[in-house]
Design goal:
This protein has 268 residues and is an alpha/beta fold. Helix 1 runs parallel beside helix 9, helix 2 crosses helix 3 and helix 4 runs antiparallel to helix 6. It has 9 helices and 9 strands. The two termini are 31 Å apart. The chain has one domain: Rossmann fold (3-Layer(aba) Sandwich). The radius of gyration is 17 Å and the shape is globular. The longest helix has 18 residues.
């Protein structure tokens, strides 16, 4: 019998409503951390596919997946994005969401992909008492020339109907969401975006993953995260893999995280 199930509620935060799902395990021990999944720049809950459930099964932990404002079934964006948009998600929206769902003391393992990985780094640096450990997948800490170069063909693909599946996940919010992402990263204001100094406060164990064929960044992202964080960090450059290791190399990625989690748990 599968001991996991999904619940699909919403949480109201001031004037916005966020959609989230819980993955609950009957095997979870008391006082265990909860795994928080933070999606990519154009992501949503269903775009994770079965990765959250499978990972929670392997770790024997409860999990939560949610859609940030502007995404999926959550409230639409109400204003134009600025260069601090990742900070707002990490330091305003995410803390409010966590406090609303977990009003009592609870620790977390953050698993963030792309923008979600950056949000995980920022949150962990500012809320160290909340974060037991974190995993980033294709996270960014600087805006590289390769990042900008990778966005241009994505815009072309979107405008020529090759990314129409996004409308299945974000509906009428899709156009605004897409250009909020693309235009922000390509803007002059974002050209020198860099959070390396900010993550120097991060002390929890971290697993930093990236595909060798990542189209939005280079190995510098992994090196900078490892160099600028205080905690025990491990970096893995995944061969023959692009921007979505958790989908392209699903079982391998889960096994990497599981083995890292076992080592990390023994140290604590």
């Amino acid at each position: 019998m599968n001991p996991f199930f999904y619940a699909m509620p919403f949480v109201q935060l001031n004037k916005i409503r966020l959609h989230y799902e819980e993955i609950t395990s009957t095997q979870t021990r008391k006082n265990s951390p909860v795994v928080v999944f933070l999606h990519e720049a154009l992501g949503s809950i269903p775009q994770w596919k079965d990765f959250p459930r499978l990972l929670c099964e392997e770790l024997q932990l409860n999990g939560i997946i949610y859609e940030r404002q502007g995404y999926g079934k959550s409230s639409a964006l109400k204003s134009n994005r600025k260069a601090n948009y990742l900070h707002k998600y990490a330091l305003e929206e995410l803390p409010q969401l966590i406090d609303a769902i977990y009003p009592f003391d609870q620790q977390f393992i953050l698993v963030g992909h792309s923008d979600g990985g950056t949000i995980a780094l920022l949150y962990a640096a500012h809320y160290p008492e909340k974060v037991r450990a974190l995993v980033t997948i294709a996270a960014h800490v600087i805006n590289e020339p390769e990042t900008i170069a990778g966005i241009t063909p994505t815009i072309f693909a979107f405008e020529n109907g090759k990314l129409d599946k996004l409308f299945n996940y974000h509906g009428v919010k899709t156009n605004k969401l897409f250009y909020a992402w693309a235009n922000t990263w390509l803007s002059q204001e974002f050209l020198n975006w860099n959070i390396c100094l900010e993550i120097e406060k991060l002390e929890c164990p971290s697993l930093i993953l990236q595909g060798e064929k990542e189209q939005y960044g280079t190995y510098k992202q992994l090196d900078l995260i490892k160099k600028n964080t205080r905690g025990n960090s491990e970096t893995i450059f995944i061969s023959n893999c692009g921007h979505h290791p958790h989908l392209e190399k699903n079982l391998e990625t889960i096994e990497m995280i599981k083995q890292w989690h076992i080592k990390t748990s023994k140290r604590s």
